[in-house]
From TrEMBL:
Binding site for Fe cation: 74, 76, 118, 120
Keyword flag Iron: yes
Lineage: Bacteria, Pseudomonadati, Pseudomonadota, Gammaproteobacteria, Oceanospirillales
Descriptive protein name: Pirin family protein
Domain of life per record: Bacteria
Pirin C-terminal domain: residues covered: 207-309
Pfam families, A to Z: Pirin, Pirin_C
Species for this entry: Natronospirillum operosum
Named cofactor requirement(s): Fe cation
Alphabetized SUPFAM superfamilies for the sequence: RmlC-like cupins
Cofactor remark from the record: Binds 1 Fe cation per subunit.
InterPro entries reported for this sequence: Pirin, Pirin_C_dom, Pirin_N_dom, RmlC-like_jellyroll, RmlC_Cupin_sf
Molecular-function GO term, any one: metal ion binding
Length: 340
């Protein structure tokens, strides 16, 4: 497609296909039943493969959880996780003693660095009606020089994430939430300091887009040589440079060309990932991403030796008090809550 911003169309699998500096992206959407008072589902778990429940039954999954849905304590080294929660809540706990509850538009950005364990549980806080959950988990690589940096996490509250708003000639609105990156005069909150995204020259962007029916917007060009992909995850369709992209498809774009977007007959949602490639060799196995196989073997040996500091919480599937609001407590004891 000479002269078009569109390189190719992807049919999305699980996980979604990503490109350097991104390693992994999944979209979780679960329609959980009401809670049972203990933050688990008020429903029978019979017949589910508890501990490895990834098959959608009745609209939801338990994932690795056995009482409460989610991902009990597990380790990471050598990269970062970006968890964008659009609906529902996530309870975080980690081996550094940090903790949090976030959701309804919040994002947690965690640098695993030299090694950390964390749990990500999905507490079902509503005992009167269903509990909706939607999130993206995105893995972004660290360059070799930062793979053994100190672990760190940042909380990007929904209230602090800038929203770009464009109204087309017919009054139809496109909104873009800037989790990372810049758009016109709007700048996302700062990522963790060791992140590849912390250097503006790398032009890392993590954006969620919502287009009203029929809305038109032109995604502006960035620098050449970036990897840029637009993932459509809900709605009827999105036209990109005249090509129809349906939900569960992605559009791989030339980063230095503007791309004309138009929503179909329904509200359309998309995620954009963009960044300059790190362009280093990497080796990965399970929860570890390093540069060589030898470093992967060392990561497993280090975890077997001290479990990256152990687990200071009473439960591997740690959740916080049911009546607790959104909060983030860091390893030094500092605690923050959303800005009202």
């Amino acid at each position: 497609m000479s002269g078009s911003a569109l390189k190719r169309v992807l049919d999305l699998g699980f996980p979604w296909q990503t490109a350097d500096p991104f390693l992994f992206c999944v979209h979780h959407e679960d329609h959980f039943p009401r809670g049972n008072g203990q933050m688990g589902p008020d429903a029978s778990l019979a017949g589910r493969n508890l501990g490895m429940d990834f098959e959608i039954r009745d609209g939801w999954r338990m994932y690795h959880g056995e009482r409460i849905p989610g991902f009990p304590a597990h380790p990471h080294r050598g990269f970062e996780t970006i968890t964008v929660v659009t609906r529902g809540f996530v309870d975080h706990a980690d081996s550094l003693g940090a903790a949090g509850r976030y959701g309804e538009g919040d994002t947690q950005w965690m640098t695993a660095g030299r090694g950390v364990q964390h749990s990500e549980m999905f507490p079902l806080l509503n005992d009167e009606a269903g509990n909706e959950l939607e999130l993206f988990q995105i893995w972004i690589n660290l360059p070799a020089r930062n793979k053994m940096t100190e672990p760190h996490f940042a909380m990007l509250w929904n209230e602090d994430v800038p929203v770009y708003r464009h109204e087309d000639s017919a009054g139809r609105v496109t909104e873009v939430n800037l989790i990372a990156g810049r758009l016109e005069d709007l700048q996302a909150p700062p990522p963790p300091p060791a992140s590849w995204a912390a250097d503006a020259a790398n032009e890392v962007a993590v954006w969620t887009l919502c287009l009203e029916p029929g809305a038109e917007w032109t995604l502006p060009a960035a620098s050449p040589g970036l990897n840029r992909c637009l993932y459509v995850y809900r709605g009827s369709l999105l036209t990109v440079e005249g090509q129809t992209i349906r939900p569960q498809q992605g559009a791989v774009l030339h980063s230095d060309q503007a791309a004309r977007l138009r929503a179909g007959e329904d509200v359309t949602w998309a995620l954009m990932l963009q960044g300059r490639p790190i362009a280093e060799p990497f080796a990965s196995h399970g929860p570890f991403v390093m540069n060589t196989e030898q470093e992967i073997h060392q990561a497993f040996a280090d975890f077997r030796r001290d479990e990256f500091g152990g687990w200071p919480w009473p439960d591997r599937d740690q959740v916080h008090a049911k009546d607790r609001g959104r909060f983030a407590r860091f390893a030094d004891g500092t605690e923050i809550t959303p800005t009202e």
